[in-house]
């Protein structure tokens, strides 16, 4: 059983997908806490409805010490922290305590359309502006470099000529929901191996 904390900022559709996969028996995981940097995040309500403990560390107050405060809340014993639509930059000791135990979902094919200031709808606007033919989503480990940790898994989404930022966001989001839960399953089944050359996915547990 994977014990996780989920950090959120927005509507929480990725959080919902984790909740749904757990409830459907597809994911052996328990959400111990949901922490939001935004008091108005819809994700908070999604968690509360399910009786999951929620905490707000408002980014207007906790800009620099969000990571430290979050670490005090969750302690050091969880298996994983999942950034699911979390739009602040995580800093501080939490990155060492949870080294290789923090993952993020990003709505593009990293290394394209990522980095500081590139999040949420802005990513899809940039993809449309660049007239890219493909985009997608990425689950990666989190380190001190924004969107710079090792890539775990990516899914390609085709950009159609009729797409705008809204339709693209919808298409990519629906793939994010599947990709994030797929990675959580791989981690729970201990099928990810971190090597200096990158993340390997194991066919069988070794
Ligand atoms: C998602 O598209 C997620 O990939 C993105 O914010 C959206 C949140 O949706 N995250 C980033 O851009 C992080 N760099 P949600 O709140 O409905 O899960």
Describe the protein's architecture and organization.
By secondary structure, the chain is α/β, with parallel strands linked by helices. It folds into 2 domains: 1-98, Formyl transferase, N-terminal domain (Rossmann fold), CATH 3.40.50; 107-206, Rossmann fold (3-Layer(aba) Sandwich), CATH 3.40.50. It is built from 6 helices and 9 strands, in the order βαβαβαβαβαββαββ. It has helices at residues 13-23, 42-49, 66-74, 94-97, 121-129, 165-188, and strands at 2-8, 29-36, 54-56, 80-83, 102-106, 134-141, 151-158, 192-195, 198-201. A 7-stranded mixed beta sheet has the order 3-2-1-4-5-6-7, sandwiched between helices. A two-stranded antiparallel sheet has the order 8-9. α1 links the parallel β1 and β2 (29-36). α1 (13-23) packs across α6 and α5 crosses α6 (165-188). The radius of gyration is 16 Å and the shape is globular. The protein starts with a strand and ends in a 5-residue tail after the last strand. The mean pLDDT is 96. The structure holds glycinamide ribonucleotide. Glycinamide ribonucleotide binds at residues 10-14, 43, 84-85, 87, 105-107, 119-120, 123, 173, 176.
């Amino acid at each position: 059983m994977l014990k996780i904390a989920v950090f959120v900022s927005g509507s929480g559709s990725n959080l919902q997908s984790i909740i749904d996969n757990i409830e459907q028996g597809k994911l052996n995981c328990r959400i111990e806490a949901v922490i939001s940097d935004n008091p108005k995040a819809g994700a908070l309500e999604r968690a509360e409805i399910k009786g999951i403990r929620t905490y707000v560390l408002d980014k207007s107050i906790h800009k620099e010490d969000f990571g430290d405060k979050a670490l005090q809340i969750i302690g050091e014993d969880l298996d994983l922290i999942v950034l699911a639509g979390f739009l602040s930059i995580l800093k501080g000791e939490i990155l060492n305590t949870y080294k290789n135990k923090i993952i993020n979902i990003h709505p593009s094919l990293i290394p394209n359309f990522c980095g500081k200031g590139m999040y949420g709808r802005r990513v899809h606007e940039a993809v449309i502006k660049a007239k890219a033919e493909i985009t997608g989503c990425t689950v990666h480990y989190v380190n001190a470099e924004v969107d710079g940790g090792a890539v775990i898994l990516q899914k390609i989404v085709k950009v159609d000529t009729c797409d705008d930022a809204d339709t693209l966001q919808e298409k990519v989001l629906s793939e994010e929901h599947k990709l994030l839960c797929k990675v959580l399953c791989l981690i729970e089944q201990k099928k990810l191996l971190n090597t200096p050359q990158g993340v390997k996915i194991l066919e069988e547990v070794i």
